[in-house]
Amino acid sequence: MTVTTADPSIMAPAEWRDFLALTKPKVMRLVVFTALCGMLAAPVAIHPVLGFTAILCTALGAGAAGALNQWYEADLDARMKRTASRPLPAGRMERQAALHFGVGLGVFSVVLMELAINWVAAAILAASILFYVLIYTVWLKRRTPQNIVIGGAAGAFPPLIGWAAATGGLAPLPIILFALVFLWTPPHFWALALFVHKDYANAEVPMLPVVAGEAATRRQIGIYTVPMALAAIAPWPLGLTGAVYGIVATATSLIFAGLAARVAFRTTGADDRMRPEKRLFAYSILYLFIVFGALVVDRWVG
C-alpha cells in the first residue's frame, strides 16, 4: 500500500491541537493517575508544589514518548484506520517537528524532575521514555507478537515514579504495582487487537491475533489474567495494604476474570461484533482506575 504525505513546501503550520494530539492525552490520563496514586500511597508526604511538579514531569515524559512513537510510526499510522487521522499521517505536521518536540519535551521533563525532585525519580522517568521509544516502538513492535508482553513494562513505570518522587527510593509495594500494570497490559491490548486486527494486518504489525490467530489470543488473555489478578490482590495478604484495598482489588479482579473468561472460552462467528472483547477492553481501563484509587483510599483510612 502506498502512503502519501503532504508536500512540506505547502504544509500549513501545525496547530497547538496537533502537538497535543502527539502526546496521546487519553493514554496520558492513566499514566498520570497511576503515578499520582503511587505518590499518595507512599509513607512519606511530599510538598504539594513538589508533588505537582513530579506529576507534571511524568505527564510531559509520557507525552514525549507518545510524540516520538508517532514520529517513528508515521508510516504505520497512515495504513491503519484507527490512527490515520493523527497529525503526521494526516499531513498536518512535518515529521521533523514531531521529532524535535518529542526530544525536547523528554529532555525537559527528566532534567526538571532531577532538579526539582530527586535523581531516582528522574532516572526511572528517563528509563520509561527510552523503554517505550527504543525497546517497544523501534525494536519490538514490528518484529514480534510478544511486543505487548515485553513492551508492557513501559506503561508500568508510573507508580514507581510517583513513589520515588515522594520517598527518594523504592519498596515492595510499588514493585508489585509495577508487576500489576505489566501483567495487565497483554489482556488489555490483546482485547483491543481482537476487534481491530484488520488494522494491524493491513499495517503488517505482528500483533498476536494477526500472527497466531484469534483462538490463541483468547487463550493468552485468559492465561495472563490469572497472575495479573494475583498481583493486584497480593499487597493485602502481604500486609502492605489494608482491607479496603484488599476487598476492592479482589472484587474488581474477579469481575475482570469473569470478562476475560468470556473472551477466552468462546468462538467467533462471521457476524460477531466482538462485544465481549470490547467490554473487557473498556473495563480493563476502569479496573486500573478503581484499583489504584482504592490504594489511595486505603492509605488515607489506614
UniProtKB/TrEMBL annotation:
Family: Belongs to the UbiA prenyltransferase family. Protoheme IX farnesyltransferase subfamily.
Tagged with keyword Iron-sulfur: no
Subcellular location: Cell membrane
Protein name, per record: Protoheme IX farnesyltransferase
PANTHER family, sorted: 4-HYDROXYBENZOATE SOLANESYLTRANSFERASE, PROTOHEME IX FARNESYLTRANSFERASE, MITOCHONDRIAL
Transmembrane segment boundaries: 27-46, 52-72, 93-113, 119-139, 160-184, 236-259, 280-297
Pfam families: UbiA (PF01040)
Catalytic reaction equation(s): heme b + (2E,6E)-farnesyl diphosphate + H2O = Fe(II)-heme o + diphosphate
EC number(s) recorded for this UniProt protein: 2.5.1.141
Membrane topology: Multi-pass membrane protein
Keywords recorded for this protein, A-Z: Cell membrane, Heme biosynthesis, Membrane, Transferase, Transmembrane, Transmembrane helix
